[in-house]
Amino acid sequence: MKPEKTVDELLHWRFSQARVEAPSAPSASQLLDRARPWWEKWPEMFQSKVKRLRRIQIGHDGPATDPSRSSDGNVVPTLIVCGAEESEGLVRVLEFNIRKDNLRFRFQIEPRLTLAESTLELTFISDTDARPLLFAPAIGLMESEYLLDAALLPEIARDWARLKKTDRLPFRFIFRSGTGN
Description:
Elements (H helix, E strand, L loop, with lengths): L6 H15 L6 H8 L2 H4 L1 H13 L13 E2 L2 E10 L2 E15 L2 E9 L8 E8 L5 E11 L2 E7 L2 H7 L10 E7 L4
Parallel strand pairs: 2-8
Antiparallel strand pairs: 1-2, 2-3, 3-4, 4-7, 5-6, 5-8, 6-7
């Protein structure tokens, strides 16, 4: 007759097995590298994406002929990067609110995307000097509609606080999905 192991012995055995199977912890430099934004890790790639983004044009001749301005919201030029593939698109702004240095931004991507991921990384690029302003995850809601809730630097929140969804917004977007980096 075999003696049965106690629960305590089983837990100690499982803990020792988990320790053997677990990967080693990343070093401090690896953690810092992971926290760096993508444009700092790959500056040449960032510059090429920004160059293409700045070539995307939408009409700004006036409210009657401008597809970027309507009562439904604004459209913003967008570069969509899915792995190695890139495409140009527009983001239709559905909601743009800033409260206490937090941005709530709901939007729809045109053309509609069919992605495996429900979260995209959204990088805001300044329209004036093409520098990155913010990057944060945007969560898919339904049919190419996404929501981003992010904390803003106080100076950006102050500058953007007066903006409405129908205003011409001072930035463009780079979406990244399935990039693996």
